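Hi all, a correction to my earlier message: I attached the wrong file for DUF2917 domain-containing protein. Here's the right sequence:
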Amino acid sequence: MALFSAPDPHSQRFDLPSGASRQLRLRGGATVICVSGCVLVAEPAYRSELPPGTYLPPPTRLHAGESFFLPERGTLTVTALGKAQLICLEAPGAKAWILAFARCLRRLVGKNNPPNCLGALHNISK
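and the right structure:
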């Protein structure tokens, strides 16, 4: 048995050496978590889809255990200030939500779940 569970299919783990920089393209709802070390997370200062004169906030410094939430789809530049580890959690897309819903319906309507099935509860209540 492994000490740590397998990573979620919607997550990525990065090891960044000191001073290294990496650009990440993430979908909306993504979260960047700093596991160890210290990183600087910066969104581009300007995006073409924003109205003129709108600028994004300055870079954010993350220490171990802190997280950064990306509400909209976009690119992040992550720079390690020392040796650092990151985990990027991406929200599942529409296809994943539909498949999960279909699995749930299949489980509810399946052979092992007939309608009005109470299991052992009917013996207790009589």
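Sorry for the mix-up. Residues 42 and 58 are 7 Å apart (CA to CA).
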